[in-house]
Each structure stands twice: as structure tokens, then as C-alpha cells.
Amino acid sequence: MTWITYNDALVEDITAKLDLRAPNSAAIRAVAEAIADGDGREVVCSLATGVGKTYILAGLVEYLADQGVRNILVVTPGTTIQEKTVANFTPGHAKYVAGGDVEPLVITSENFARGQVGDALHDDGVTKLFVFNVQQLIRPTDKTSRKVRSQDEFIGSGLYQHLQQVNDLVVIADEHHVYNSKAKAFSNAIADLGARALVGLTATPAEGVVPIYEYSLAEAIADGYVKIPVIVYRPDGRKDEQTVLADACHLLRIKDAAWTAWAETQGRTPVHPVLFIVCKDIGDADRVASRLTAEDMFPGEGAVLTITSQSSDVALRALAEVEDPSSPVRVVVSVNKLKEGWDVKNIGVIVGLRALASETLTEQVLGRGLRLPYGKRVGTPMVDQVDLVAHESYRQLLANKEALYKKVVPAAGGEFDEGRPSPATAAMSSGASEEPEHHQETLSLTSKPRVLGDDLADGSLLLQVESMNDTVAQGERDRKAVTQFRAKRPEAPDIRFPRREQEVLPVRFSFSYITDASARAEGAAYSQEFKVELARKAMEYQRGIDGEVSRQIMAAESVDATQRRISIASLREDLFNRIWNSGYVEETFPESRAAERVVREFLSGAGVVAEDAEHEWGELRAAQAATALGKLVKAAYDNRKLQPQYAFRVVTIPTAPPPVMPSNVVDKWQDFRKDLWYDGWETSVEPVASFDAKSTEFKLAHLFDESSSVQWWLRNYEPGEVWIERDNGRRYYPDFIVVDTEGTHWLVEGKSNDRANDPEVVEKRQAAEEWARFVRDHGEFGKWRYLFATEAIIKNARGSWESLLALAAPE
């Protein structure tokens, strides 16, 4: 095959079909560009655990298959990830990744030695996805055999040798850090395949590996794709194992109540949180599991599940079903067996019965609890956070900053907010004793200010340290808060937003789409007269030897039948009427002239150059010609092009049912933090609002709320119902809707100074300005305008709406 070429539009299409997160889409784009040369290069993407490497794999398979690649090998470090990967590509399985167009033939060590698979291996029309763990691929020794390297009657060689011979093999190595240079047998098994490209996916790159794309845990937490880790300490300093386990079980019950309450108010199936405990060895795990089944903890049948290298198949099946709402499992006790490949969304509490800094807060262990139970942050801390119970001295936690920085803050550019002391400095300067006081302490690690979505984010809360007392109190607030709704104020109006949506419709048909050449080609089949023959049969009677007379029917020479003759003038009129009355076009003079042209060219193809009173066609020829011309026009109509058109669809906002009231709500005069919701607004349609950036959105909200010229304002969130559709099909979500005292509705966008002229930002602004013009010209939705304000404009407006309008100078 000719090798693939980079196709950005295809990446965008796959992003939409699989509903990919931004970092996943960016990773696929980086890989697609990097491997376009097909020179066998090895590229690595490093993405934080919990971000969704599974979707990157699915997207890459979709991309490669669309480009004609038919042999894709996924290498996993063990059977756990191998089985999960097979499930991801098995329609009907709970973990199947839906949305793509490609359904590859999944080939494993269990099914490759079959005739059907053997046939598919040599079929260039079938996309083959080989899923093997690395142990199945390495070269056999004298004491071991690898059936993938043995001769197979259906393949004609060993499977490994077959993969070496295909010219379009792409290898995707999951958990790529496992195959580093120190694991020579592993790395050689992959390198010897001679693939056109090797793509590594990992959360923890091996030493010396420079990824082509990186997305850190800090970024994942800041962007809201995973839970916020919270280290829970005990104010009284107790840290014995019995206390740690009892507190962890208590926290789990509190979380369960909060998760369930949130799900019930949203009409969702409750997801039950699970306690994940990491022990130092099998004996320790068995002892801890036995203690957890006591009457004061989780005595129910099957509530405590122990997973070690000695676990039974029954236990492993129970582990696979731990996300199922009917699963009885509430605690999973493990011995480092589940650091990789166990991807569940319902880990709520983690306990490391080994040293915290060296084990529990490594990304692989913490990663088991990062996935969000309902797929996204919901604004309820007990749902959006994972608690790490670590009853050590608070000073010890703060002093051990090296592990915290290394695992939570990005390696490149991570730093504290300006003016905020480091954790250790803060503890020492405050005179903190060996055991903390009975109040909440928060350790705020922040990422360096960076582009987040469309804005320059100020830095985000990445890790919290809270007392056990405060954590329990937060859980009670969360359980109660979900019974309240973040409904709009009773006196606030419903806002009817005219959403302009793109519809792809067939273009209006015209006879002008039919070329002269196609009409003449169709007419050429009717250049000769069609004869209608009269069949003649002769009956003969003969006497046989036995004296009997028999009858035989014999064919006789046929003769031409007479036909009704049609003049060229009448024929031309009949052909015209045949297509004119088809209903495919509007009855206009241009279409009439086009129809006459089509008929003229059709007859020209049949040899009719000019009207001749003596030239006539037979009835059969004329009838079939009319039918053929009608089919030509219908085919042109059916194959007409598609074109985008826009139509308005009015949506009423805020939409119902409203989301639940978040419990992390503070007064609007408190300092800005991205993870908080703010209340106390005077003219906000909704009583609480959250913001992504302090210098734009947060300041704009205060300006609107304090201006006598603003009647109402509403914060707009992504995703939501208020968006502008751009020509490329993507959606743009402006920051606010503002209704001024004159009744004009404004879409308002705040933007950092250094992003204001980015091409995408400019394109969004143009799309919104065009939308506003169309709405105003339509005349049925009131007056709508668009306002774009940079940080400098917002600052110089000094809280005045009139000044903001003057400086922004909207169209």
C-alpha cells in the first residue's frame, strides 16, 4: 500500500464521532502527523491516568483504518490490560467504545489459529486488530514455546512471521514504559516486527523518553477531566491502622450517601463508591481483609474483595464487575497488583498501608481513583474528589513536598501562585506543631498559568489537604445540598435564544446540471429505428408409421408490423413534457430554456440535426426514448450536491431541569478560585455562578451586577444550549448573555490580551458577529448584539457598562 498522509479533517471527524476530550484529540493529531513518513519511527504520548488513553487507541484505529492500514497490533504488558482492550473493541460489551465507523476483526492468541482468521489475514479489505500481551510475542527459549511463532496451516507461516511480512503494520504499545531498554526481551519482540510506526501510550514515560505529546496529571485535574485528590489527616494525630481503616470506612459511607443523593435527584442510576486499600504483602492483605469483614465495618457477603497474585478466577470476575450497581463489593484490598489496567470510575477512598510518599501518591496508585463516577465533574465535592486517608503528622506531609511536587505538579513549569508560600514554609512560619490544630488546612498546588480552552487560566487547585472533621462535614453538606436546585430566580425572565443551526440539504435542482455530453450520450442509443415484428407460426400435420396423425408447430418467416409514426415536432414536445412535468424544478423561463436544451442535445445524439417534416420515429422508439430521458433527469436529481443552510431554532434558557445546587459556594466578594461557585449576585438570572478566569469572566460578572444599565445577566457554560455554530461545524460557547435596560440582548465574551488575535479566536468572533447580524435582520427575535472584550478593555472600563461598550466598540 502507499503509506498514509496526514489528514487534519479526518482527525476532526473522529473527534466528533467519538466525542473525544481535547487532550485525546490532540494526541491523535500529534501521532498522525509524526508517523506520516512511515519510516518506522517510535513516538510516545504521555497522558495522565484517567484522561482516557482507551479513546486515543480507538481514535488511532479509526484513523489508520480510514487511511487504508489493515494491520494494527496492540501490545499490552499483561492479561488484565489485554482483556480490557479486547472488550473495548467488542460490540455489546459494557466497555465497548462506540461511535466509530470501523469494526476491526479482533485477533488474539485464542482465535488466530482458525480458518476464518487465516483467510482474513490475507484479505486487504479487512482491518485486523491484533491484541497480544508482550509475553506472547517474545522469542521462545529452550524451555518455553510461543505458538504465535509456530507454523500455522491456515496462515502459511507463524503469526509473528506474518506480521513481519505485511507492509503496513502499526504497533501501538499500551503502558509503553514497560518496554524500556532494560526489558530487552520485551523491546526486542516489538522492534523485530519492523513496523511502519510504533506508537507508545503511557502515563509515566521511561527515563530518557521524550514524548511528542504530554498532558500531565496537573492539567487533567485543572481541566476537570479527573477527580481532585484530597489527603485526609486526623486532627488528634492518631495514625494506628485500626483508626485508619475505621475512618476510611466511615468516609466511604458518607461518600456513598452523597453519590446516591446526587444520582437520585438527576434521575441517574447510582454509582456506589469503593474503598481501595494497598497493602505491603499477601499476608498483610489477608489480615486487613479479615479485619474489614468485622461487624463494625463491612460484614456483608462479598463486600470485601482481596486481589493478589493468588486470587481465584471467581475473585477476578468479581473485580471485573465492581462498577455494576448490583455488585456487593465495597472494599478492594490489593498488593500492588492493580497499579495498571484496572480502569474503574467508582474508587472513592484510597488507603495506602505503606509509606504515603513513596507509594500511595504515585500516579499509578492514585490513578485508580481519578476517574469520575458520572463522567464529568458535577459541582459536588464528595463526588468530584477522591480521598486519600493518610493519618500521619501533618508536618510530615508538608515536609515531604518532593513526592507531592513530582507526582502532582507538571515537571515543566509547575510552580505556586505568585505570593503563595510553599507548603513547608507555610507550616513552619505559622508555628505549626507536630500535630495540626483542629481546623481545615489546605495545600494548594497550582499549575503555571497557561492556555485552558480559550482563556489563559490563572492556575488551578490541584491537591487539597483536609482534616477528617472537615471532610465529614463537607460530606454532610453535599448530601443536603443536592436536595436544593440551582433554579433561576423567580423574578428573572426566560431568555429565548435564537440558535442558528446548520442543516445540510440537497441543493435546489436545475436542468442546467445536466451536461450536453450526457444528454447526447443517452440519445445515441436511439439513433436507429426499433422494429416491431409479427411472429408467424405454421402448423403441420403428419401421419406416423403407426398410422396416427400428429401436429407440429413450426416457426415461419416473420414480417414487420406496422407502427404509429410520430413526427419530430411531436416527439420533441413529448420529450419536453416528460421532463418538465417531473416536478423536479420550479417553472421559470431559465428552466424552460434548459429543458429545451436537454431535449435538443438528446435528439442530436440520436442523429436528429434539424426538424424534418418527413422524418418520423416509430412509436416504440419514441416511447423508450422518453423513458430513457426521464431516467437521465431523475439520476441527475438523485445525485445533486449537498449544501449547508442555516435555520433558527429557539431554545428557552435556563433549561429545565436545572442542575443541583453545588455545595462549594462562597460569597461573590471572596477571592477567585476556579473550583468555587459564587453567590450574592443582584441581577444574575441564576443565584450562583462559576468562572474559568479571574481577569475576564469573574470581573465581567461583577461589572454586570453593579451596573444600573444591566437588567439581567446569565453565565453560559460549555457544554450547554447556547452556542454559535461555525462554518466548520464546531460550536462556540460565549461567556455570558446580558440583557440591558433598553431590552437589547448581548452575547459577551471576555478574552485574555495575548489570545485576542489567535486565528481561532478571531474566527469565533466573526461567526458570532455574523450570527448577530442574521438575527437582527430576521426581525422576529428582538435585538441581539455581540461584545468582545479583552482584559485591558475590562480593566479600563472600571466597572462601567457604558465604558465597556465604548472601549469594545461592538459592531
CATH class of the largest domain: Alpha Beta
| CATH topology call of the largest domain | Rossmann fold
Number of domains: 4
CATH arch. level architecture of the largest domain: 3-Layer(aba) Sandwich
The secondary-structure class comes to alpha/beta
- The share of residues in helices is 25-40%
The CATH homologous superfamily of the largest domain is named P-loop containing nucleotide triphosphate hydrolases
Number of helices: 26
The side-by-side strand order for the widest beta sheet comes to 3-4-2-5-6-1-7
C-alpha end-to-end distance: 53 Å
Major sheet characteristics: 7 strands, parallel
Radius of gyration: 36 Å
Beta content: 15-25%
Number of strands: 30
Average residue pLDDT: 78
Low-confidence stretches: 141-145, 356-361, 397-461
Q: Name the shape in a single word.
A: globular
Structure description:
- The strands form nine sheets. The protein has a seven-stranded parallel beta sheet with strand order 3-4-2-5-6-1-7, with helices on both faces. A seven-stranded parallel beta sheet has the order 10-11-9-12-13-8-16, with helices on both faces. The protein has a four-stranded mixed beta sheet with strand order 25-28-29-30, sandwiched between helices.
- The protein has 26 helices and 30 strands.
- It has 811 residues and is an alpha/beta fold.
- The chain folds into four domains: 8-215, Tandem AAA-ATPase domain (Rossmann fold, 3-Layer(aba) Sandwich); 218-481, Rossmann fold, CATH 3.40.50; 511-640, no CATH class; 647-808, Trna Endonuclease, Chain: A, domain 1.
- Strand 28 and strand 29 form a beta hairpin.
- Mean pLDDT is 78; it is low at 141-145, 356-361 and 397-461.
- The longest helix has 26 residues, at 241-266.
- The radius of gyration is 36 Å and the shape is globular.
